[in-house]
Amino acid sequence: TYSLSLGEEEVTIPGVEGKPFDDAQLALEELGLAVKFTEQSSNTVPQNVVISQDRQAGSKVAKGTTVTLTVSTGAEMKTVPNVIGLSATNAKATLTAAGFVVEIEEVSGTASNRVIDQSIDAGSEAAVGTTIKISVDTQMQSIRPDDPRPGTPGQNTDEDDDIFNPFGDQPIGDLNH
Q: Which pLDDT score is estimated for 176?
């Protein structure tokens, strides 16, 4: 018996993008294809899932052909910098440069315009693109709600109150002596 060979046997490349790497590798190897892979971080494709393949799905190749898959390592992780004590502008620039999204919350305190808290602790690992909320001390806090000093919340607007009396409404005596 004679057999006639028309060349190497061809197989059709399956689409394996979006599949777990182990499943993709098995599917390709069962067709007689060799598999190589490279790794790449991705904020949208879960870890160990195929991002792309170098051979187009549906194309015909000879058995033994190598197919290279790009496999996700998951989101890129970065160390969160310490921004407590920085100005709001510098803190936002520092976090943005590290790849994070910044949300600013204004809080009452000493009006120092400094960061007094951050939602993810410095030194922690977080995925690039994560939102970090910073609390910025931007408003002067009133001593009491009816504080008569000008420019404070709850300001007393009586025209007769020209002098701040820290003892309340008690007379402070004769100021001319």
A: 52
